[in-house]
Amino acid sequence: MALPRLLVLVLAGGAGGRLQLLTANRAKPAVPFAGVYRLVDFPLSNCQHSQIPDVWVSIQQHPTSLADHLANGRPWDLDRTSGGLMTLPPFQGTERGGWNTGTANSLWRQAELIRGFGADALVVVSSDAVYELDYREVAEAHLQSGAEVTMVTTEVDAGDAARYGIVEVDGDRVTGYAYKPDEPATTTATNEVFVFDPGPTLDRLEQLRSEVGEEGLEDLGTHLLPAQTRDGLARAYPLKGYWRDVGTVESYWEAHRDFLSPEPPIDLDDPRWPIHTRGGRHSAARVLDDGQIENSLLSGGTRISGNVRGSVLSPGVVVEAGATVLDSVLLPGVRVRAGATVTRSVVDDGVDVGPGSSVGGEGDVTLVGLRARLDEGTEIPAGARYPDPE
């Protein structure tokens, strides 16, 4: 019996504004994570381990930052003569051309291409979360259910529930759906992985477009998913393992704390399900002189002569003698000069923390880098305090 033909569409074109300066010059899926990875590595690795060879990535914001990382798809075994990785930029020339204004709008613009592919099931995923999931297993459950859409769900904290699409479930049947509700009815959220029956779903999008217009389609949760739920055609598939949305600075920082645990929620090197990335461009990390490391992740090319505790250091980071880095995430190329202190912070690419300066402290996570009151530069002057307490 032949396996069902699956197509994965990775939605990687959002602005990612909640990550602030981290997405000022890069696409959200290209944001570094856990030192050597990028956020898009998680859905692409899921595709590889799910044995799905046809993966399309919808790109839009800062596309070169993502295209440079994706290359030809080789790290995820997607560099194929037939099928494999294909990027979908905004286009012109047909009535569906134009800038994507939401996830449902993006799906509508690619409808003709999707129909032509002839998939048995269309898997649509976002690329701003950290998790492992067998997409083929979800798709096969979806095909057996007869549903028009299967929503992968997870439980979230009550205080965060308003950030997500929230569902009410009876067995595996979705009986209620609300997109980012002011007063969530449950804490069961969709985790932005959906399996659609392509034909009926695209037909429904056409009908919705005739009612609300192209831009009115907005996100999948605005009109499409509520309509499928009202018609009794939505099913839920609970994700049993770890899932963490990293779409805000606070959640991005907290996710890194998860992976500093003695037993991290995902073994990124698990031989049964490794997370692949484009890498291999840095030498081994070095701890020099009086360097001290405690409960931290060090990437290749890092040079440590100071004190690093509870932190994640990306490739090329330098911590000089007498400097201290506490509970922080330093992105590629950051240099912390002698005597400087960085505490509870996320420091963007290439920032030079001057000698004797102080970044962050107790309370909210501090985000620092280009366009973060650094006068369009990437240097914190010697002896400065950031943020300025005044």
TrEMBL record:
Keywords annotated in UniProt: Glycogen biosynthesis, Nucleotidyltransferase, Transferase
GO biological process, alphabetically ordered: glycogen biosynthetic process
One Pfam family cited in the UniProt record for this chain: NTP_transferase
Nucleotidyl transferase domain: residues covered: 9-259
Top-level division of the source organism's lineage: Bacteria
GO MF annotation: an example: glucose-1-phosphate adenylyltransferase activity
Keyword Transferase: yes
Glucose-1-phosphate adenylyltransferase/Bifunctional protein GlmU-like C-terminal hexapeptide domain sequence ranges: 290-361
CDD domains: ADP_Glucose_PP, LbH_G1P_AT_C
Family: Belongs to the bacterial/plant glucose-1-phosphate adenylyltransferase family.
Protein name per Swiss-Prot or TrEMBL: Glucose-1-phosphate adenylyltransferase
Organism classification: Bacteria, Bacillati, Actinomycetota, Actinomycetes, Geodermatophilales
